[in-house]
Specification:
The complex is a heterodimer of chains A (84) and B (453). Helix content of chain A is 61%, strand content 0%. Chain A is built from four helices and no strands. The mean pLDDT of chain A is 90. Chain B is of the alpha/beta class. Chain B has two domains: 247 residues, ANL, N-terminal domain (Rossmann fold); 96 residues, GMP Synthetase, Chain A, domain 3 (2-Layer Sandwich), CATH 3.30.300.30. The longest helix of chain B is centred in the N-terminal third of the chain and has 22 residues. The chains are: A mainly alpha (84), B alpha/beta (453).
Chain lengths: 84, 453
């Protein structure tokens, strides 16, 4: 099964397809997937209902994927509001 | 049997981040501007310190339309930062987020004799700090099959902390030697088959000396083939590099960073271009005349001004580092990176130049001469003023046990070579007893100015 396409809603796909990177270019398919994962983790990292084991590891994962989106010029923003 | 795909053998050749490391300059500048606009706006919005500074200078982030607008942004100085920490303990009003969100604390080593500078990092800031090291170590040729040995004390000085995590990112077996003695470290790195040694240049040489006293030739008996040095000059001093390379039978890479920036910002790749590539996708570096503030071009010696795109907890924008550099194009290296190079690494500090009887003297220029003498194990520079008028400079040298008898010959030649390198300035040479001069694991302080000026 293609996990990527299975987990994307059509709304997500549209926003990822139209998303521009820091150089003003459209994202490749892999980059779109990375950006969607980043966005999902960012939503989860702010979810205080999750237990510490989940929240803490999600924040660690978000820090890692933040680095990927930063290195690949997909996104560059600060994340302290969600504890990262 | 483990599938090779899971052994971390993702060796993509030369670059950690191929796209950015070879990006055309025009695009690189576009990327820098996008990041600069974001970090400057964030600092203005979240940090009272930066807002005060920007407003006092009549600057607003909306005025930043191109990199040419950079001059509108006021500088940040270390004195100002320290003053801010004193006025609003512990961290000043530079923080952009509540202290509770920080996960790491580090401080400067305080080698300049002043209060150490305190810094905080959040989760992603630390991720970035390690990433900068991963770029650098990868560029030097360190891969997942390497065994990387850290001869480092792991205190609150940032030192090799980020490097340790960067090595783990690459997937290398990463060994922390913590509070072990030098003898124990020498034995352990041989026993574990370490291939890469990371330490300050002074300490790398110290380890080789101690090994020699233990009857061990590390060039022959260890598997070290790469030595990474940082934390102080030395890795960029040709004679010191040669000595390190010969002692260990290894290649040397000089990687430069500072606590203020949160990580390293420039590295020497495995093509050894005679300098360090600036990681221009994550930092913005300018070279200015330290006196006039005039922007300098390629090949001109000036002060390094630093802006970080990595650390958001304490944004560092147009920081006057006091480092002296000469910038040249990336094309002077054969590696294919488009990132500019600091030729010769960090050449010295604006404030560590000494004027002796009209001649400019830098500790690094003395080290460059002294390290050519393999008889010298350690040295110290002492500057005094005789009768309140005449400045004198003395280099105390400690010779290895085997060379102790050769002091007269060595001192005559050394005095001549030092004079030749410093407009015929007279240097006094004295002999220190074997083992009497201080040894350093972190930043060496070999120059003592006793003139009281």
């Amino acid at each position: 099964m293609n996990l990527t396409s299975a987990s994307k809603s059509s709304e997500d796909l549209n926003s990822a397809e139209n998303k521009l990177n820091l150089l003003g270019q459209l994202l490749s398919e892999d980059e779109q997937t990375l950006w969607l994962i980043y966005r999902e983790l960012k939503n989860l990292a702010g979810n205080a209902k999750l237990p510490p084991c989940a929240l803490s590891n999600i924040r660690a994962a978000l820090a890692s994927i933040w680095q990927v989106t930063n290195d690949l010029d997909i996104e560059f923003e600060q994340l302290y509001e969600v504890g990262v | 049997m483990v599938n090779d795909n899971f052994l971390g053998r993702f060796e993509f050749g030369e670059y950690w981040n191929p796209m950015n490391e070879t990006m055309p300059r025009e695009q690189l500048e576009k990327l820098q501007l996008a990041k600069l606009q974001r970090i400057v706006s964030y600092a203005y919005e979240k940090s009272a310190f930066h807002r005060r500074k920007f407003e006092a200078a009549g600057f607003h982030p909306d005025q930043l339309h191109s990199l040419a607008d950079l001059d509108r942004i006021p500088f940040t100085t270390k004195d100002e930062w320290l003053e801010e920490q004193k006025r609003y303990p512990m961290f000043g009003e530079m923080l952009t987020a509540p202290q509770e969100l920080a996960t790491r604390y580090h401080a400067t080593s305080g080698t300049s004799g002043r209060t150490p500078l305190r810094v905080l990092d959040g989760r992603k800031d630390w991720q970035w700090a390690a990433e900068m090291w991963a770029y650098s170590l990868y560029a030097f040729g360190i891969r997942s099959h390497d065994i990387v040995y850290y001869a480092f004390g792991y205190g609150s000085f940032i030192g090799f902390w980020g490097s340790h995590y960067g090595s783990e990112k690459i997937g290398a077996l990463t060994i922390a030697s913590g509070g072990m003695s030098t003898e124990a470290r020498v034995k352990q790195l041989i026993e574990l088959g370490a291939t890469t040694l990371c330490a300050t240049p002074t300490y790398v040489l110290r380890m080789a000396q101690v090994a020699r006293d233990m009857g061990i030739d590390v060039a022959r008996e260890s598997k070290i083939n790469k030595v990474v040095v940082t934390g102080e000059p030395g890795g960029n001093v040709p004679a010191t590099r040669k000595m390190i390379a010969e002692s260990w039978g290894a290649e040397v890479s000089d990687i430069v960073g500072m606590t203020e920036s949160g990580s390293c910002f420039a590295f020497e790749c495995r093509h050894h271009p005679g300098g360090t590539h600036i990681m221009e996708d994550h930092v913005l570096e300018e070279t200015l005349d330290p006196k006039t503030g005039e922007r300098l071009g390629y090949g001109e010696r000036g002060e390094r001004i630093f802006t970080s795109f990595g650390r958001g907890f304490i944004p560092l924008i147009r920081f006057r580092t006091g480092d002296l550099v000469v910038r040249v194009p990336g094309s002077t290296c054969t590696c294919g990176r488009t990132w500019d190079i600091y030729q010769g690494g960090i050449l010295g500090r604006v404030d560590d130049m000494k004027l002796i009887r009209g001649t400019n003297v830098y500790p690094s220029s003395i080290e460059a001469v002294v390290r050519k003498f393999e008889e010298v194990d350690e040295f110290q520079i002492v500057i005094t003023r005789e009768n309140g008028i005449m400045d004198e400079i003395t280099v105390e040298i400690e010779l290895s046990r085997e060379a102790e008898e050769r002091f007269t010959v060595v001192s005559v030649q050394l005095a001549k070579d030092l004079a030749d390198a410093h407009e015929n300035l007279r240097f006094n040479i004295t002999q220190a007893d074997c083992g009497s001069l201080p040894r350093y694991e972190l930043k060496a302080r070999r120059m003592k100015d006793l003139r009281g000026i």
